[in-house]
Amino acid sequence: MWQMILFGVLIGVLASLSGLGGGFMVVPFMMWLGKKSHLAVGTSFLVVFMIALSSLIAHWRLGHIEWKTGFILAIGGVVGAQIGPVLLANIPDVVFKRGFATVMIGIGLWLLWSSRTPA
């Protein structure tokens, strides 16, 4: 249990630093524990919600939030969040794992490439 708490601390730090919410670590961790993709994704949203709420408060205190943009993006996100679980319920685990890995690799490569040019 304490290992999961320590892993949660790591997820919280990385999520609040990156803005990625933590699901990028929770989902693979849950699948490593032998959970099916739909359970890993669903559980990660509980984790992400708690981390996001805490991180929102911390970033709000620092003045790091663009509220209008956030709310506009959230409107689309709420709609998409209703579609995603239905799609996931019809995707085999192996297809999800390969797709998730491809997206993670793509994001990683984009971040590496975009970090080459000075900001």
Question: What keywords describe this structure?
Answer:
119 residues; 0% strand; globular
Please identify the structural class as seen in this structure: mainly alpha
Uncertain stretches of 5 or more adjacent residues: none
The rounded Rg comes to 16 Å
Number of domains: 1
N- to C-terminal separation?
41 Å
User: What number is the mean pLDDT?
Assistant: 87
Q: What helical percentage do the residues reach?
A: over 70%
| SSE pattern | HHHHH
Biggest sheet, in brief? none
Number of strands: 0
Tell me the overall shape. Answer: globular
Q: What's the helix count?
A: 5
Q: Strand content of the residues, in percent?
A: under 5%
Notes on the structure:
The structure is a single chain. The protein is mainly alpha-helical. The chain has one domain. It has 5 helices and no strands. It has helices at residues 2-18, 23-32, 37-61, 67-89, 93-114. Helix 1 crosses helix 3 (37-61) and helix 2 (23-32) runs antiparallel to helix 3. The longest helix is centred in the middle third of the chain and has 25 residues, at 37-61. The chain is globular. The mean pLDDT is 87.
Write a short abstract of this structure.
The protein has 119 residues and is an all-alpha fold. The protein has helices at 2-18, 23-32, 37-61, 67-89, 93-114.
Describe how the helices and strands are arranged.
Elements: H1 2-18, H2 23-32, H3 37-61, H4 67-89, H5 93-114
Helix pairs in contact: 1-3, 2-3
